[in-house]
């Protein structure tokens, strides 16, 4: 596979469930991101990992928990979500630094459409 | 609050015309700008990046950057119905680390 992949593509969960979203990038990048996209709102940056360290956490509720075990994989663990958390969750990657190449171009995966009931 | 502003549209243009999409940004120190295309129900797709004042052309797309006016635009020549999508403008603000700030997007409709 190439690019950025995400699973599952669609997820319906109850407020008491625990689930995880998975992202994998095949671009050799060293930075990965989680975004939330709700209708009529700009993309909201949730978390940034650079060189496997979390470098940004935009006041995201603790019911969202990221994990980055290596530079190619990123997870978003979900628990006790609220209906307002229903949205498209997008993963992206970029080349942050190292190897003399820096590009802030971010490439997105297809997203996970999350519905919380 | 550093922001990126776009007119939400919809912008309607006839097939074959030039579509002009505009974006302004608040941080004078911004250095990097990006245009993404997002089809309904899909994820954003990077179509252009621009870092220097002036024009940058790629096929039917031309990005224009004017840092003095804090303005970036995207021109689509010979618009096709397949260009109908929402176009997101994004900027990397100075001191923002890896963060890109996105506008709300402009919906483009290319009509037959």
Which keywords apply here?
heterodimer, A: 117 residues, mainly beta, four-stranded antiparallel beta sheet, 0% helix, globular, B: 112 residues, five-stranded antiparallel beta sheet, 53% strand
Architecture overview:
The complex is a heterodimer of chains A (about 120) and B (about 110). Chain A is mainly β. Chain A has strands at about 5, 10-15, 20-25, 30-35, 45-50, 55, 65-70, 75-80, 85-95, 105-110, 110-115. With about 110 residues, chain B is mainly beta. Helix content of chain B is about 0%, strand content about 55%. Chain B contains no helices and eleven strands. Chain B has strands at about 5, 10-15, 20-25, 30-40, 45-50, 55-60, 60-65, 70-75, 85-90, 100, 105-110. In chain B, strand 6 and strand 7 (about 60-65) form a beta hairpin. At the A-B interface, strand 5, strand 9 and strand 10 of A face strand 4, strand 5, strand 9 and strand 10 of B.
How do you describe this structure in short?
With 117 residues, chain A is an all-beta fold. Chain A has no helices and 11 strands. In chain A, 0% of the residues lie in helices and 59% in strands.
Number of strands of chain B: 11
- Write down the secondary-structure element order of chain A: EEEEEEEEEEE
Per DSSP E runs of 2 or more residues, the count of β-strands of chain A stands at: 11
Q: Which stretches of chain B are poorly predicted, pLDDT < 50 over at least 5 residues?
A: none
| Separation, N- and C-terminal Cα atoms of chain A | 32 Å
Q: State the helicity of chain B in percent bands.
A: under 10%
- Look at the helices and sheets of chain A and give the structural class: mainly beta
- End-to-end separation of chain B in angstroms reads 40 Å
Radius of gyration of chain B: 13 Å
- Main sheet of chain A? 7 strands, mixed
Largest interface: A-B, 23 and 22 residues
User: What fraction strand of chain A?
Assistant: over 45%
